[in-house]
Predict the 3D structure of the following.
Amino acid sequence: MIGFFDSGFGGLTVLKSVVRELPEYDYLYLGDNARAPYGERSPEMVYECTIQAVDFLLKKGCLLVVVACNTVSSGALRRIQQEFLPGAYPDRKVLGVVRPSAEEIADRGCRTIGILATEGVVRSKIYTEELEKISPSVEIFYQACPLLVPIIEAGKQNEEHSDVVVSEYLGNLFARGGKIDTILLSCTHYPILYDAFRRHTPPHVKILTQGPIIARKLRDYLDRHPEIGERLSRGGTRSFFSTDSPEKFDRLASVFYGECIQSMPVTLGFSN
Ligand code: DGL
């Protein structure tokens, strides 16, 4: 099984692209909706929550977990890979979304990129760190969008104020980064507001979403790592878990995933 984890609904935008690209595998999704948003939480708290979530997915039998969340990928992933996995699950892998997205920015030859993300991601400057290794000449402008995940988790993305909020964030970004040629929606929740982002972005500026990027990169990864790819089960099943009530999760999740979902509830506790 391949596990997917996000603070809430956002990772479903990535899973949707991945199952389209790689339909044969079994997938297990976990949204920590009861504790979302993670964006303004401390790195220590994000790490604690992530350990519990990843441990849940690995105990369920996932050989590979994709952390489909930029906030977790920037704040906790390295510690999970270096401190948690080697002792607890030495034969499993946990991958994030930041490195593959940075590679895509470099591969596309972007010169000036706008990174729209949560406070946690902007504070971490993780895209600067990753791009410095592979394409140091890319100029980066960050814009934190702290109101968006709460709006989306509440299912209010279609209300008029979400459009106003998006236009303000983009106004701030373009006031500083007039030469921006590409925007990366660096939060997996944001594609649900893609039309609003497009409306308030100059037509010559490309807008990238992470779902298609991660789907392609995951295929590459499995091709390059047959020792994992060949061990993954291929029953075509999809299972969904949320820390919030199944009724609420199922109603809103189907908008992100594009199909009806029947989730199961899970309680994640704090480890000592
Ligand atoms: N989908 C998460 C991300 O990509 C949102 C984090 C949050 O809960 O604030 O960053």
User: Anything to note?
Assistant: The chain has 13 helices and ten strands. The two ends are 28 Å apart (CA to CA). Residues 2-96+212-265 form a domain with the Rossmann fold fold (CATH 3.40.50.1860).
